[in-house]
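Run log // design_07
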């Protein structure tokens, strides 16, 4: 499970910002004691939330927090290469002097196989000119620091630390690891390439198989999980599971079918997916209505179908996944959105204790009957254009059973857009 994630000097994020899944010591009111029980999972004696939501004005940096985590995970799980292609991590805060000379910072604390690890790196663009000799190695991005802290024998200690190309390696492996080949090469990936059984590979494998996001605003990549539930004719139960999942969102179908064969490594199109419904006519004769997912169903239904298989898979894994959803409320009715979040917080459904990190503008979720106040984070822009991230639990004087949505919209928590009347005033002056 994810314990916390920290980032500094990335896009709108200038100073170090941390989002934590660790439950604080606060307790819900007697009316909502079930929330404390349902929303929290214990892993390695740490109480961790299964859902965290980020709210804030447009352009305040909500998505940048998610992008930082998503890009960081992609870098960790990427296979080593002679080409760096890590430019999407090197997007420093622009409103500062010599921004390209200042390294960006990323760190994750997570639990893998009941062991807690802290892994991080610092990275910057290579501002040195490329050598005339193209045969010489050159990295567009440079890893300036890297570290892995975890269990070392009986205590917690440094498994490896790196400054530039120099590495202090304390990993419990017998095989000699060659020097890092390129300035952009991650030592965690470098070690994993030589030893598949070491802790570096276990961390990379965990994140590679357990993390999914919609940061590119494309749910097509998720659709394959839903297709897997209906493509195998010998597994009727899996199709029923998918139909039951949709039914829980008040989408009642009798069957779902594919109009073409699956093609390897290709996204299955929505217009080749149909649902059937039985319809009672006036003379009480039942007929079957066929609905095309692309042509006949709403954008919300299309989105829900695309993520249905992903969520069913996540809930049934033998270890927790992390799902990152930006603008989770897009195309969803508030009631469906509440239902979706509650699925993660229902132990009988989310048996793997998978986690959900999302951004939203829908304040219907901001209720103590759904999530605790330490499950809500806010982003706001500071005077220097940088993002400030803070938890609702950081604010004093807020009751645990307060109407969070009402107080947020009233401005008690900050993180609201500043609306100016410039357009109206300019129009009146003409």
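design_07 sequence
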């Amino acid at each position: 499970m994810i314990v916390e994630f920290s980032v500094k000097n990335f896009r709108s994020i200038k100073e170090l910002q941390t989002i934590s899944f660790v439950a604080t010591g606060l307790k819900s009111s007697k009316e909502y004691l079930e929330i404390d029980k349902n929303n929290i999972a214990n892993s390695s004696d740490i109480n961790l939330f299964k859902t965290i939501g980020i709210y804030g004005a447009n352009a305040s940096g909500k998505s940048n927090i998610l992008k930082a985590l998503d890009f960081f995970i992609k870098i960790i799980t990427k296979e080593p290469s002679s080409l760096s292609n890590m430019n999407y991590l090197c997007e420093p805060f622009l409103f500062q002097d010599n921004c390209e000379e200042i390294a960006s910072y990323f760190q994750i604390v997570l639990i893998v196989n009941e062991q807690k690890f802290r892994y991080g790196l610092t990275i910057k663009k290579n501002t040195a000119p490329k050598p005339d000799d193209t045969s010489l190695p050159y990295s567009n991005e440079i890893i300036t620091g890297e570290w892995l802290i975890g269990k070392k024998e009986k205590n917690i200690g440094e498994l490896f630390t790196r400054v530039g190309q120099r590495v202090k390696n304390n990993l419990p492996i017998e095989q000699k690891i060659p020097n890092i080949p390129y300035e952009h090469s991650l030592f965690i990936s470098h070690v994993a390439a030589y030893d598949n059984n070491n802790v570096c590979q276990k961390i990379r494998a965990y994140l590679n198989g357990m993390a999914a996001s919609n940061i590119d605003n494309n749910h097509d990549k998720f659709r394959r999980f839903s297709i897997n539930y209906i493509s195998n004719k010998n597994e009727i139960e899996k199709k029923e599971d998918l139909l039951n999942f949709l039914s829980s969102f008040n989408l009642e179908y009798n069957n779902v079918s594919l109009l073409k064969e699956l093609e390897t490594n290709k996204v299955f199109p929505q217009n080749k997916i149909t649902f059937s419904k039985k319809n009672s006519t006036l003379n009480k004769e039942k007929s079957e209505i066929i609905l095309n997912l692309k042509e006949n169903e709403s954008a919300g239904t299309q989105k829900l179908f695309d993520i249905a298989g992903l969520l069913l898979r996540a809930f049934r894994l033998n270890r927790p996944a992390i799902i990152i959803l930006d603008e989770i409320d897009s195309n969803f009715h508030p009631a469906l959105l509440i239902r979706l979040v509650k699925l993660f917080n229902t132990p009988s459904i989310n048996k793997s204790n998978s986690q959900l990190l999302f951004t939203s503008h829908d304040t219907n979720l901001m209720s103590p009957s759904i999530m605790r106040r330490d499950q809500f984070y806010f982003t706001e822009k500071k005077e220097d254009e940088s993002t400030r991230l803070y938890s609702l639990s950081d604010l004093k004087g807020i009751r645990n059973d307060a109407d969070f949505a009402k107080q947020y919209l009233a401005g008690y928590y900050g993180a609201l857009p500043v609306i100016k009347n410039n357009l109206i005033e300019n129009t009146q002056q003409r």
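Residues 1-217+326-430 form one domain.
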